[in-house]
Design goal:
The chain is an alpha+beta fold. It contains two helices and six strands. A six-stranded mixed beta sheet has the order 2-1-6-5-4-3, with helices on one face.
Amino acid sequence: MTDVDDLADRLALHELVARHGHLVDAGDLAALDEVFLPDVVYDVTDLGGTAMAGLVEVEAAARRLGDGNPVGHHVTNVVVTSLNEDGARVLSKGLGVAGDGTVGSVDYNDEAVRTAEGWRISRRTVRARRSPLRP
Protein backbone atom coordinates (compact mmCIF):
# COMPACT_ATOMS: atom_id res chain seq x y z
CA MET A 1 0.00 0.00 0.00
CA THR A 2 1.25 3.48 -0.78
CA ASP A 3 1.03 6.28 1.75
CA VAL A 4 -1.85 7.82 -0.25
CA ASP A 5 -3.74 4.51 -0.22
CA ASP A 6 -3.11 4.18 3.50
CA LEU A 7 -4.51 7.67 4.16
CA ALA A 8 -7.54 7.05 1.94
CA ASP A 9 -8.27 3.77 3.73
CA ARG A 10 -7.88 5.38 7.15
CA LEU A 11 -10.30 8.16 6.20
CA ALA A 12 -12.77 5.61 4.80
CA LEU A 13 -12.58 3.61 8.05
CA HIS A 14 -13.16 6.72 10.17
CA GLU A 15 -16.23 7.58 8.08
CA LEU A 16 -17.46 3.98 8.22
CA VAL A 17 -17.46 4.01 12.02
CA ALA A 18 -19.14 7.44 12.12
CA ARG A 19 -21.82 6.43 9.59
CA HIS A 20 -23.34 3.92 12.01
CA GLY A 21 -24.57 6.64 14.38
CA HIS A 22 -26.10 8.69 11.58
CA LEU A 23 -28.04 5.71 10.26
CA VAL A 24 -29.41 4.42 13.56
CA ASP A 25 -30.24 7.88 14.88
CA ALA A 26 -32.21 8.55 11.68
CA GLY A 27 -33.95 5.16 12.01
CA ASP A 28 -32.54 4.10 8.64
CA LEU A 29 -31.85 0.53 9.77
CA ALA A 30 -32.34 -0.82 6.26
CA ALA A 31 -29.15 1.03 5.23
CA LEU A 32 -26.95 -0.67 7.84
CA ASP A 33 -25.49 -2.73 4.99
CA GLU A 34 -23.50 0.43 4.20
CA VAL A 35 -21.62 -0.18 7.45
CA PHE A 36 -21.81 -3.91 8.23
CA LEU A 37 -21.45 -7.17 6.34
CA PRO A 38 -24.70 -9.16 6.05
CA ASP A 39 -23.23 -11.80 8.41
CA VAL A 40 -21.79 -9.30 10.92
CA VAL A 41 -21.29 -10.44 14.50
CA TYR A 42 -22.46 -7.59 16.74
CA ASP A 43 -21.56 -8.42 20.33
CA VAL A 44 -23.34 -6.47 23.07
CA THR A 45 -23.05 -9.12 25.79
CA ASP A 46 -21.26 -6.61 28.04
CA LEU A 47 -24.41 -4.45 27.88
CA GLY A 48 -26.65 -7.35 28.92
CA GLY A 49 -27.50 -8.41 25.36
CA THR A 50 -26.15 -11.14 23.11
CA ALA A 51 -23.68 -11.61 20.29
CA MET A 52 -26.07 -11.10 17.37
CA ALA A 53 -25.31 -12.87 14.10
CA GLY A 54 -26.32 -11.05 10.94
CA LEU A 55 -27.88 -7.76 9.97
CA VAL A 56 -31.39 -9.17 10.16
CA GLU A 57 -30.88 -9.95 13.85
CA VAL A 58 -29.22 -6.59 14.54
CA GLU A 59 -32.09 -4.70 12.93
CA ALA A 60 -34.73 -6.78 14.75
CA ALA A 61 -33.00 -6.14 18.10
CA ALA A 62 -32.96 -2.37 17.47
CA ARG A 63 -36.67 -2.44 16.60
CA ARG A 64 -37.48 -4.47 19.75
CA LEU A 65 -35.58 -1.99 21.90
CA GLY A 66 -37.77 0.80 20.52
CA ASP A 67 -37.74 3.87 22.76
CA GLY A 68 -34.94 2.27 24.79
CA ASN A 69 -32.55 3.12 21.95
CA PRO A 70 -30.37 6.19 22.47
CA VAL A 71 -31.59 9.33 20.73
CA GLY A 72 -27.99 10.09 19.80
CA HIS A 73 -24.93 7.94 19.07
CA HIS A 74 -21.69 9.93 19.07
CA VAL A 75 -18.40 8.30 18.05
CA THR A 76 -15.05 9.79 18.98
CA ASN A 77 -11.38 8.88 19.50
CA VAL A 78 -11.26 6.71 16.37
CA VAL A 79 -7.94 4.88 15.96
CA VAL A 80 -7.04 2.45 13.19
CA THR A 81 -4.83 -0.01 15.07
CA SER A 82 -3.98 -2.29 12.16
CA LEU A 83 -4.45 -2.02 8.43
CA ASN A 84 -3.55 -4.17 5.46
CA GLU A 85 -4.95 -4.66 1.96
CA ASP A 86 -7.84 -6.84 3.10
CA GLY A 87 -8.59 -5.99 6.72
CA ALA A 88 -8.38 -3.49 9.52
CA ARG A 89 -9.01 -3.14 13.24
CA VAL A 90 -10.55 0.06 14.51
CA LEU A 91 -11.01 1.18 18.11
CA SER A 92 -13.32 4.04 19.04
CA LYS A 93 -15.29 5.51 21.91
CA GLY A 94 -19.02 6.00 21.85
CA LEU A 95 -21.42 8.17 23.79
CA GLY A 96 -25.09 7.29 23.81
CA VAL A 97 -27.57 9.95 24.87
CA ALA A 98 -30.88 8.59 26.15
CA GLY A 99 -34.23 10.32 25.82
CA ASP A 100 -34.10 11.35 29.49
CA GLY A 101 -30.73 13.06 28.98
CA THR A 102 -28.57 10.43 30.66
CA VAL A 103 -25.37 9.49 28.88
CA GLY A 104 -23.51 6.21 28.65
CA SER A 105 -19.99 5.57 27.40
CA VAL A 106 -18.73 2.53 25.47
CA ASP A 107 -15.68 1.25 23.66
CA TYR A 108 -16.17 -0.13 20.14
CA ASN A 109 -13.72 -2.76 18.89
CA ASP A 110 -14.32 -3.26 15.17
CA GLU A 111 -12.89 -5.67 12.65
CA ALA A 112 -13.39 -4.44 9.10
CA VAL A 113 -12.85 -6.01 5.70
CA ARG A 114 -12.46 -4.50 2.26
CA THR A 115 -15.31 -5.42 -0.10
CA ALA A 116 -16.19 -4.45 -3.66
CA GLU A 117 -18.48 -1.79 -2.14
CA GLY A 118 -15.78 -0.47 0.21
CA TRP A 119 -14.92 -1.16 3.85
CA ARG A 120 -17.50 -3.00 5.97
CA ILE A 121 -17.46 -4.07 9.62
CA SER A 122 -17.44 -7.85 10.00
CA ARG A 123 -17.39 -7.89 13.81
CA ARG A 124 -18.18 -5.25 16.43
CA THR A 125 -17.69 -5.79 20.14
CA VAL A 126 -19.19 -3.17 22.43
CA ARG A 127 -17.90 -2.79 25.99
CA ALA A 128 -19.48 -0.47 28.54
CA ARG A 129 -17.32 2.06 30.33
CA ARG A 130 -18.49 1.76 33.92
CA SER A 131 -15.66 3.06 36.06
CA PRO A 132 -12.99 5.73 35.76
CA LEU A 133 -9.25 5.20 35.69
CA ARG A 134 -7.93 3.95 38.98
CA PRO A 135 -4.18 4.54 39.25
